[in-house]
């Protein structure tokens, strides 16, 4: 166990100081010896992300989520968050769509995490889903207690013809919550 912690600490130190090649090598050595540790893929994804190698980072984060679903459920949200940030670094429509799906999943468990709403607005905007982006911005504004801005965004969202019914209902809910606060 001490050998594992020592090797792990060295790998993290290499990662933090930007020696990504050495961190990859150390991680490979650790993985060969302690294959059951579920966070290897996440760490590998973090290293690839810092290197700007987003396609490899995505692959590793997806592996991490798959392995963690069997073992450590609460940890999945943080890995999904890393995966979302990586998807948003690419310009691929498929990755943006995946980021929206993951964001909606995370928001079910973390509805008051305002940054998730901001990321949903960003991804939706890049997908030309203005209505969804406005509702996400309204949720973020509501969390930050900026009721005027929240109402403004709901009004803008309601002007969009392609606003999905679930987001129309969310907009109505936001307006109702604003009325309760006033």
Provide the gyration radius in Å.
Answer: 20 Å
Alpha-beta classification: mainly alpha
Report the principal-axis shape.
elongated
Distance between the terminal alpha carbons, to the nearest Å? 57 Å
Could you explain the architecture of this structure?
- The protein is 79% helix and 0% strand.
- The model has no long low-confidence stretch (mean pLDDT 89).
- With 182 residues, it is mainly α.
- α2 packs antiparallel against α3, α6 runs antiparallel to α7 and α9 runs antiparallel to α10.
- The termini are far apart.
- It is elongated and about 60 Å long.
- The chain has ten helices and no strands.
Q: Can I get a quick summary?
A:
The protein is mainly alpha-helical.
Question: Notable features of this structure?
Answer:
182 residues; mainly alpha; 10 helices; 79% helix; 0% strand; elongated
Strands, helices and their partners?
Blueprint: H1 2-16, H2 20-33, H3 40-51, H4 54-70, H5 76-87, H6 93-109, H7 114-126, H8 130-143, H9 147-158, H10 165-181
Helix pairs in contact: 1-2, 2-3, 3-4, 3-5, 4-5, 5-6, 6-7, 7-8, 8-9, 8-10, 9-10
């Amino acid at each position: 166990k001490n050998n594992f912690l020592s090797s792990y600490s060295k790998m993290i130190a290499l990662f933090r100081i930007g020696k990504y090649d050495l961190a990859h090598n150390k991680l490979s050595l650790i993985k060969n010896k302690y294959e059951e540790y579920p966070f290897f893929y996440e760490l590998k994804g973090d290293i690839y992300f810092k290197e700007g190698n987003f396609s490899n980072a995505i692959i590793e984060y997806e592996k991490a989520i798959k392995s963690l679903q069997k073992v450590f459920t609460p940890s999945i949200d943080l890995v999904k968050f890393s995966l979302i940030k990586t998807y948003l670094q690419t310009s691929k429509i498929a990755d943006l769509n995946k980021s929206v799906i993951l964001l909606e999943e995370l928001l079910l468990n973390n509805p008051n995490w305002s940054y998730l709403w901001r990321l949903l607005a960003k991804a939706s905007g890049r997908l030309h889903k203005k209505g969804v982006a406005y509702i996400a911005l309204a949720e973020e504004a509501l969390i930050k207690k900026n009721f005027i801005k929240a109402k403004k965004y709901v009004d803008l969202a309601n002007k969009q013809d392609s606003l999905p019914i679930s987001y129309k209902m969310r907009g109505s809910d936001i307006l109702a919550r604003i009325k309760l606060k006033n």
